[in-house]
Design goal:
single chain, 212 residues, alpha/beta, six-stranded mixed sheet, flat
Amino acid sequence: MRRTVESLGLVLLCSLSMSSGTLAKDHGVSGETFPIIEPDLMATIEARLQKLQATGGIDRMNAEFARRAEARVRRPKPVDGITPAVQMREWAYDPTIVIEHDVSDQKGNLIARRGQTVNPLDFVTMHQALVFIDGDDKAQMAWATERYSDLKAKIILVSGSPIEEMTARKRRFYFDQEGRLTGKFGIQHTPAVAVQQGNIVKLTEIKLKGNS
């Protein structure tokens, strides 16, 4: 039995060898071949970083990054599309919102249901006016700072440097980052003042003398 199995295996092996020799063909050389090279990306990055470190490049990059960051803080990007007011304009802003999802407190008690309308001014009060001005306009800066104290209003710049103004005038100033407030209120011109009247916000764009 063992010899029969060995004989069968030998016959199969010979058959495979003959088949392989029959099917394999030499098609010649179709083109020049090159070795496949896969560079180590991390090694390349590390080598470049080491070169930058040795030449002081990383320190220069860090210094430039810090300089740009400080410049953005000192003088943020001006709000686009805001111009000096050439006529007085008044309107009302209703801050009422529609609840999109049920809101519960930490104990699971339902505070507001989905679809319910809520006006934040029913729960909080704007104790200070919001005064929007162009910080690069000397006339607007003088008008706002002479008319409004820190207790009476928050002066919000749409252009200029709030840090420089705080240093020079020894009072607090704010900046409308990315035009979020002016965009929400629909303010297009400065000076503009927002004050609470009941459960709405009254907004006024004010023409200063000399603006036309």
